[in-house]
Amino acid sequence: MLNNVSKPFFIMAMMVMFLSACTTAPITQKPPVDSRDVPSRPQPETAKTQPDAPQSARPQALPSPPADSTSTDIPATKPAPAPSNPAVLALLSDAEKYQQQGNLSAAQSRIQRAQRIAPRDPKVYYQLAHTHYELEDYRLAEQVALKGVSYAQGDNAQLKRFWLLLVDIRKNAGDGAGAKAAREQASRY
């Protein structure tokens, strides 16, 4: 009887050993990386001495040059390249057609898709800011235009277009002082 009982246990033990030999090592997952664990990019020596300001405390507009500077102080730079992505070009073209037809929400949708494809293209930001302006969403139009200004650095013609658009946005939003400041910025380009 012992032989009959131990035989199934022996077979089961052999199967367990066989199966355990055939298995692979367990898959372990690495813990998620916390952003505090990732080393930040090295900063210039001048920036290391100043503490970082919180994101909400950073100014939205670019600093103004000194009052005694003239437009001749701005170095000549090459313009920003035109969007080369065919999808972006097609979306901007469609958006322009929708704007001409008066379908601003469809135009806005196309431009936002173009923005997701080319998130640093100042032409996309200009067209999006202009669409928000036409929709009379002046707060959002100003934010998008200021973001576009940051991406248009080096393209004086594009910077002038942004600042002139900001003049209109601020004037229609009832911000006369802001419109005047934007006009002064536009005159520098």
Description:
By secondary structure, the protein is mostly helical. 59% of the residues lie in helices and 0% in strands. 23% of the residues are buried. α3 (86-101) runs antiparallel to α4, α4 runs antiparallel to α5 and α5 (122-134) runs parallel beside α7.
Q: Short summary of the structure?
A:
With 189 residues, the protein is mainly α.
Most strands sheet: none
Shape: elongated
Query: Which structural class do the helices and strands define?
Result: mainly alpha
Mean pLDDT across every amino acid position? 75
Strand content: under 5%
Radius of gyration: 30 Å
The helicity comes to 55-70%
SS elements, strand count: 0
Tally of DSSP helical segments? 8
Oligomer: single chain
N- to C-terminal separation?
102 Å
Secondary-structure element pattern, one letter each: HHHHHHHH
Uncertain residue ranges: 33-80
Quickly list its features:
mainly alpha; 8 helices
Layout of helices and strands, plus pairs?
Layout: H1 2-22, H2 45-48, H3 86-101, H4 104-117, H5 122-134, H6 138-151, H7 156-172, H8 176-187
Helix pairs in contact: 3-4, 4-5, 5-6, 5-7, 6-7, 7-8
